[in-house]
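haha ok so turns out i had the wrong file open the whole time. this is the CORRECT one, sorry everyone. sequence first:
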Amino acid sequence: MKPRVIGVCGLIGSGKSVVMRYFAHLGYPVYDCDAVAKEMYYIPRVRTQIAELIGLDPIDTEGRLRKTELSNALSSSLDIKSRLEAIIHCALLEDFDHWCKAFSGSEVVFMESAILFSSKFNERCDVTIAVDAPEEVRRERVIRRDGDKDSQRFERVKVLQMKEAELIKDADIHIMNDNKCSIIRQLEAVSRSVFDQSIEA
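then structure:
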């Protein structure tokens, strides 16, 4: 049996990881696209494709990802950016499909991605959930979490997520994580509508 795929997304500081930890704690399989994507660079064929694209091995002699060089490549041209992203996204979806087979007996699996819609990963999902929070709340969380007093990182990621910010409006379900609304009650409501069952922590 092929499990239903529930996609979860959210802008920086929205708290989507909190939602994912909740479902993981309950025993639901969770696939973190953002974390796994870093591993894709080490796959031989992917590594070769990227090296041919940017003219440089994405992995240094000590086995570390060349983050600065990759960032420069992404910002060098829209064509290189789109081609590099296509290589990683293709490899990631292949890995996700393989991962899903390991949980073929599960009714539901979760896919977490900060770019669920802009990457079109949402097309692999049966239901999409967006975790929302006001910008000022998200900024405060990032500053508190990263110690980024001038919020430079928040502003950089905010710019990168402009496209996603518009696209996630089309998510099937929205969970408000503004430190006022109860996350647990909202997740309970989601469990009834999506899973047709009650989820209790």
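The CA atoms of residues 37 and 92 lie 6 Å apart.
again sry for the mixup
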